[in-house]
Amino acid sequence: MTRLTPWLAAAGMAAAMLMSGASGAQEIGTALKPDEIKAEPFKDAKTLGKVAKGDRLEIVARQSGWLQVKAGGKKGWVRLLSVRRGQAGQTNVAQEVGGVAGVATGRTGTGQVVSTTGVRGLDAEELKAAKFDEKQIARAESLAASSEDARKFAGQGGLAAQQIKSLPDPRGGAQ
After folding, report:
1. What percent of the chain is modeled with pLDDT above 70?
2. pLDDT above 90 for 50
3. Average pLDDT along the chain
4. How is 115-173 classified by DSSP, letter by letter?
5. Rounded Cα distance, 34 and 54, in Å
6. What is the pTM of this model?
7. Residue 133 within any structural domain of the chain
8. What phi and psi values does residue 58 have, to the nearest 5 degrees?
9. How far apart are CA 35 and CA 33, in angstroms?
């Protein structure tokens, strides 16, 4: 029994270090702008609190365009575009410039994947894992407005149709 005790103590210590390392592995972020902490990752979800620009956030999870965070004693969801990942003041200028250039060109990351999701933060693995969902396509199509509905809506807002000439082809070809 005495031979086993040091081994158990060592195993217990190792387990404690692993668990503390796991809890310390959460990503840190900084609020880029004031935003609301939501109960669920939806714009119309209940607001639990607010974050101010510069607030330190602990990033717990990510779902689509939302980050689950802990901030000011609250845990909830904040829009992905409201958060800069990493410690404040530890900005990698080259990475930031590259990111801005990527947004301007529509290409980001080492694989130069073109992203048209409108959501920053999807990596190559998530794009590869994406699956066609016929129900979601049908739902999106059901939300489309007809041309007639669009004209009525524009008219109610005092908008009028205008004809705009096409830009000339930069290669000099016919249009």
Report:
1. 63
2. yes
3. 74
4. --SS-TT--HHHHHH----HHHHHHHHHTPPPHHHHHHHHHHTT------PPPPPTT--
5. 9
6. 0.42
7. no
8. -100, 120
9. 6
User: What are 20's two structure tokens?
Assistant: 């503390």
Taking the C-alpha atoms of residue 92 and residue 54, their distance in angstroms, rounded to an integer, is 17
Residue 138 sits at φ, ψ, to 5 deg, of -60, -40
- For residue range 136-172, list pLDDT tens digits in order: 888 888 888 888 988 898 999 999 888 888 888 888 7
Instruction: Give residue-wise pLDDT tens across range 82-106.
Output: 898 876 555 544 444 444 444 444 4
Q: Is residue 129 part of a domain?
A: no
CA–CA separation, 113 vs 163, rounded Å? 35
- Give the range of the structural domain holding residue 37, as residue numbers without chain letter: 24-112
Number of folded domains in the chain?
1
Q: Is residue 169 part of a domain?
A: no
- Structure tokens of 50? 């607010």
With contact defined as beta carbons under 8 Å apart, do 58 and 26 qualify? Answer: yes
Give the CATH number of the domain where residue 81 resides: 2.30.30.40
Length of the chain (residues): 175
Amino acid symbol at 39: A
Residue 137 falls within a domain, yes or no? no
